[in-house]
Amino acid sequence: MGFQCSLRAIALLSLSLLAGPAPAGEAVMLRVLAFNDFHGYVAPHGAVSLEHHLARLRASAPHHITVSAGDMVGASPLESSLFRDEPTIEAMNLLGLDIAVVGNHEFDRGLAELLRLRQGGCASAGGQERSQSCRGPAGHFNGARFSMLGANVTGADGRPVLPPFEVRSYGDVRVAFIGVVTRSTPSLVPPSGVRGLRFGDEAVAVNRVVRQLRREGVRAFVVIIHEGGFVNRDDDALSCPSARGRVFEIAARLDPEVKVVLSGHTHQAYRCLRDGRLVMQAGSYARMLSRIDLALDRATGEIDLARSSFENLALSAPEGAAETSVAALVDHYTALARPLAERVVGQVAAGFDRKPVEGANSTLGALVADTQLAATRSRDSGGAQVAFMNAGGLRSDLPCDSGPCDVRFRDLVTMQPFSNALVTMTLTGAQIKALLEQQVRADRLSLLQPSAGLRYRLDPAAAPGQRVTGLVLHGEPVRSGRAYRVTVNAFLADGGDGFTVLAEGRHRRTGPLDVEATERFLQAGAALPDRLPRIEVVTDARP
User: Could you give the domains of the chain?
Assistant: First the structure.
């Protein structure tokens, strides 16, 4: 596997630990422990597992630091989301997290809410949210005891809204930790979450900080970035010849003195040495932890990767673990959430999956699109004729091996954690076709799953404007000049995920929350997956 440590690296690490601290004038060893995309998975074992493994790895390293590469909160299970993700912040305080870079999901509820998580204080439930605040054991919320970095996030005046970096000393060597978030954040969160903010070029922001700190004598730089890439599973070479994605493009543009890039966002696991620079990511949901033992050269103050070692460690829940402050915190919030979490909301007759069949049709995406159409179809609720659901809004499957199976509220919130209101709008047939054309991206397809009754053919290789053909609704061709009522979630309605056509929709009407729509649909009877293809994607090779 690409993320497994080589035998040689393990041997080097073992020798360095047995030898003890490096002699003066040679190297200071710093152990960096990194995770990413935690997404509020405090329960059942996420936070407790992290606590166990962090304690073990810290015990054998006199100098150590723990960092998070973004999306620590947001898209969270009920045990965290119900309490405005305060349980995650409190758990990270107890875990001894030192530095976190903000991810795109830290902006889901806007900058003010992000700053509240950082600084503390209670929040009132906003809008239609059922979330609660300041329900911790102490009855109040004190905020984060760790740094939150974002060097490329500025206000309209161009000034940083978050600290760009933090410098720490180990022995007689200073190390700078620089944090940046993907510049595509505005397309990944509701516009209200980033209003008045600018997300600049990641490499430009990092290099600017490096130049500043180099003038102050700092020569060791670690970049923590919420942006990622991909490596083939069978690519076990440190050079990662299959590496692709934005983080590798960004890394290639960084100042040569940046030797380590800790990444996130794509939920992948890799460790790559490319052009004299280490690029790593540790999966997601606390299932893995990056361990990097950095050799800091005392003479030059720089990171010496030749004398460093690194690996991604798979984490497992500790067996028979003693009761700890982290475990007690998780138990507290789990007990508070249990009555709502365990409530049965309906049944499914079989399982629903996010993964598209034959690259196009997702049974879970179809189900949710159908629930949203049902919730907004009546004249009084919006008069919808069709609904669309984005893949990124679905975070888990609805498994059912032998139906009918009960679906509990926790299942719905884990599946649809964003609490988005539904929005019904008017689009012309031409705009619907243009919307579906926007599914074809430069490097991938980003498919919207339609509700029952809509059918079409998508040819990604065709010329723009000619990719969508055979578009029909309930057997009738969709007419360019005709007006149609379309339902999507609020994130999409504002042009999220690059579907800018939806921002043009007129005569908008806000409906129930997406989770409530799914709950009502399931209460009416056990749902059975519709396996009839709604989208036909052309996959034949073209010259």
Answer: 28-334 (3.60.21.10), 343-537 (3.90.780.10)
